[in-house]
Write the structure tokens for this entry.
Amino acid sequence: MRAARFRRLAAVTAGSTFLLMCVGAYTKAIGAGLACPDWPTCYGTWIPFLRPDVMAAAPYTTGQVFAEWFHRLLAAATGFLLVATGVAAWRRQPRGRPELAGVLAALLLPVQVLLGGLTVTQDLQALIVTAHLGTAVLILASVVVAAVGRRLTPG
Ligand code: HEM
């Protein structure tokens, strides 16, 4: 993939990661971390809003369930972008620091998804929530380096 396209892909991935982090922070701020009490489904279904019985029985508001559910949906979309960025980075030659940063971001994705799941199944344990935030910051930093690194270094 040509440098300009790679930079664009990494920039879109960085934007999506940033938005996802904001939605995650919002989810936490409104106390919705356990608004979907199971994982990967939410009340045993993929789209709880299609099930009025499920929503009526949920001990959270529709807004809280939506925030947590939307965080997961956006994580899935961002996950695809991170994998695409990682694969494109791996295929590029020469493979310098910006490309390695793109690969690193993709390698951190499964760790982050696992931590996200544990966040829920382990009842928002402080260490796990902290690790989830820390890994998000590392992913964002890596895709930003992938997006801007080639502008700063030749190749
Ligand atoms: C690339 C993927 C992901 C990124 C970058 C990400 C990022 C974040 C961030 C930055 C926060 C806010 C943390 C804080 O304010 O301390 C958050 C919260 C949260 N995330 Fe994720 N997340 C991702 C995937 C997931 C997945 C797959 C799940 C699965 C359930 C998940 C579940 C949660 C939950 C439950 C919270 C709220 C935690 C709380 O209430 O304390 N995340 N996420």
